[in-house]
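Sample pair:
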Amino acid sequence: MKTHLRIFLIFTRVWRSWEKFWFYSSSLKQIQVFRCVQGLLLFCFYLTRSSDLSLFYSDFGILQGAVFPEIMHFPERYSLLNFFTGFVVLWIFHLSFLLSLLTMAFGIYPRFSAFLASVLHISFIHRNMAVAYGIDAIATFFLLYLCFAETKKTQSWMSSVLGSIFFRFSQIQVCVVYAYSGLEKLRGEKWWQGEAIWDVLANFQIARWDFSWMSNFPFILSLATYATVLWEIYFPVLVWVPKCRRIILILGVFLHFGIGLTISIPFFAMEMISSYLLFLKSEEIDTMLNAVEFFSSRIKIKVVRWVADEFFV
């Protein structure tokens, strides 16, 4: 009898922890900050494509809509741009996409804005997948989750539970990205040999500068290669351990900062760093916001003083 009671108590405790994890997470502040950062980051990224909009997504560009199915046979991939092909409509979609990202960032009908941004985002990706890369794929997941994430404190039990679930989905998605990336690297011979990072730095097409001098430090290159693989593989486990979370996130910031600094994919690096907001506690979010407010006020004072000294003295 005591054994059965003990098993029942253990099962009850596990079930309550499982229920709390999925349905009762205090995620409102993390989601609000993440949604704001995500919206502004994606707005800046897709704004850079404005100059090449016609080249990438119109029938007068590098890929005509009628030719795309012959190159990549994906009948389940739908795009509004396959039905509305005019140049004016293309710009209307693009401007609507940018506007939806801004309204999502500033909390103006955030769920509807995220839904509109998600639909238009997928339409642009499916119109020309050749120009899409890491940030496009990862933004697809986050925009979908933000359609259901909690936007403000309400009395609705369903809204709170739904927001908690999709907050956890967002966290798990980050873990899946790193787990897949790390395990996939184990299939590459260069990663086992410790030469993968050198191959990237030696590729002048993607490297920002000439890193040929790094060939004089093979030990550092090999160490960085193995450390990257180990960090990505163990991230999905260690990020859930409270004592390890902070250091694993700090290492991730340094990793992606290095990637953005050396390789011409800065927005991808910022996208991954922004996802770490999902793993911070509410108190850490408050500390970060206070620091941002302090430094922004200091910068504002310096700008005002510079203008006064430059133009009025």
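The chain is about 70% helix and 0% strand.
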